Amino acid sequence: MPSGTWRVVPDSQGAGHVAADLTLQNTSARSCTVSGFPAIALLASNDRTLPSYIVKDTSVPATTITVVPGASVHAEMRYSANVPGPGEPDNGQCEPTTVHAQAQLPGDSAWAHITLDNPTPVCEKGELEVKPFVSGQSSPAGG
Q1: In three state form, how does the secondary structure of the chain look?
Q2: Which pLDDT belongs to residue 110?
Q3: Phi-psi region for residue 116, left (φ > 0), alpha (ψ -120 to 50) or beta?
Q4: Structure confidence by residue, pLDDT tens digits, 62-110
Q5: In angstroms, rounded to a whole number, what is the distance separating the alpha carbons of residues 141 and 103?
Q6: For the chain, how far is it from start to end, CA to CA, in angstroms?
Q7: Which of 65, 116, 134, 136 is most buried as measured by Cβ atoms within 10 A of its Cβ?
Q8: Which pLDDT band, with edges at 50, 70 and 90, does 140 fall under?
Q9: pLDDT tens profile 22-76
Q10: How far is 10 from 13, CA to CA, in rounded Å?
Q11: What is the reported pTM?
């Protein structure tokens, strides 16, 4: 099973949205290949499932990546932490705070349980705009 992190990309906040990297590390003793988008489920502090809606950003083509043991891949996500969507309250927090997430590689059956570095609400009913996996641990500053 991979291990993972969810970290905000430095200097990425703007227009009510923030970018974060979902990073998964190959913890096995074998190389593997990855191509495509992660599956993601948002979770509260007690691991209760929160609304999660993944929008695949297909403006960046998915490539096949060979991930050697100990190496990582990441997928950049964009979401709103403070701009409510339709049906969400105009005052206060738009959605419950996401503290953990589960993430899955394309075609895999195992889920990695991840604790967010900075717990956050994910507005618009948990909408995450996600780019496909690329090599490495993180995106450049500014998203």
Answers
A1: CCEEEEEECCCCCECCEEEEEEEEECCCCCCEEECCCCEEEEECCCCCECCCEEEECCCCCCCCEEECCCCEEEEEEEECCCCCCCCCCCCCCCCCEEEEEEEECCCCCCCEEEEEEEEEECHHHHEEEECCCEECCCCCCCC
A2: 86
A3: beta
A4: 999 999 999 999 999 999 998 999 999 988 899 999 999 999 999 888 8
A5: 23
A6: 27
A7: 116
A8: low
A9: 999 999 999 999 999 999 999 999 999 999 999 999 999 999 999 999 999 999 9
A10: 8
A11: 0.90
The amino acid at 117:
D
Kindly give, in sequence order, each residue whose CB lies less than 8 Å from that of residue 66, ignoring residues fewer than 6 positions away: 31, 32, 33
> Checking DSSP bridges between strand 72-79 and strand 127-130, what pairing results, if any?
antiparallel
Q: Report residue 8 as tokens.
A: 């905000």
- Looking at residue 71, its amino acid is A
